[in-house]
Specification:
- By secondary structure, the chain is an alpha+beta fold.
- The protein has 8 helices and 8 strands; from the N terminus they run αααββαβαββαβαββα.
- Helix content is 41%, strand content 18%.
- The protein has a 4-stranded mixed beta sheet.
Length: 212
């Protein structure tokens, strides 16, 4: 990868931070006679490239040039366990009708199906429930285990997995959510869920930390 070439304004920003850091984005903008919004792209580039570092309510300070590999490593340090949310589970003998009600009452797009030992058995998506409702079947008598997606077709992760790797798995599988599990002798026990919303919040949090 070729090195990043800075423009004249970015060079000036670096010099200001070197001489005055820590310094806020607002104060940098004042020295240049520009608005904070105008400088935001330059500050984002300098921070992500590793020339600057930033701390909320403190400001920017000169960090020296970090390598692309170092920045990538910091991104990979984001873990599933830090951003996962509470899973919504249902028993495998619940009826499809009750599952539909449960999904909408919990305002989720995916239900995780467990057996009496609380072991993961399957996954129910909105599409699964919609398909089952088209036809003449009695949804009050049909158990969810008939229509759920079963292993080995279930994508899952563990809480120590990299958030970026897990995000890639969600995209490749074209799903909105996956269970976070713990492997036991009996099977997979669900400990959380990881959704596209969780991942979006994680990267927004990362951007805010770096004041991007």
């Amino acid at each position: 990868m070729s090195p990043i070439e800075l423009n004249k304004r970015q060079d000036v920003i670096l010099q200001i931070v070197k001489e005055n850091g820590p310094i806020t984005g607002e104060h940098i903008a004042e020295r240049l006679g520009l608005t904070r919004a105008t400088l935001r792209p330059d500050l984002a580039i300098l921070t992500m490239a590793g020339f600057l570092d930033a701390r909320p309510r403190v400001g920017y300070f000169y960090a020296g040039k970090k390598t692309t590999a170092a920045f990538t490593e910091s991104m990979l340090n984001l873990k599933v366990k830090d951003f996962q949310s509470i899973p919504v589970v249902v028993p495998d003998d619940m009826t499809v009708y009750d599952a539909i009600i449960h999904m909408f009452s919990e305002d989720v797009g995916t239900l995780f199906v467990i057996d009496k030992d609380e072991i993961l058995q399957g996954v129910l998506s909105r599409k699964d429930l919609l398909r089952s409702s088209i036809g003449t079947q009695d949804l009050n008598k049909m158990p969810v285990h008939i229509i759920m997606t079963r292993m080995p077709n279930i994508a899952y992760c563990v809480n120590s997995d990299s958030l970026i790797v897990t995000a890639k798995k969600l995209i490749e599988r074209e799903i909105d959510s996956m269970p976070v599990v713990e492997e036991t002798e009996k099977g997979l026990v669900i400990t959380g869920r990881l959704t596209k919303t969780n991942i979006t919040r994680a990267f927004i949090s990362l951007a805010e930390t770096h004041d991007l």
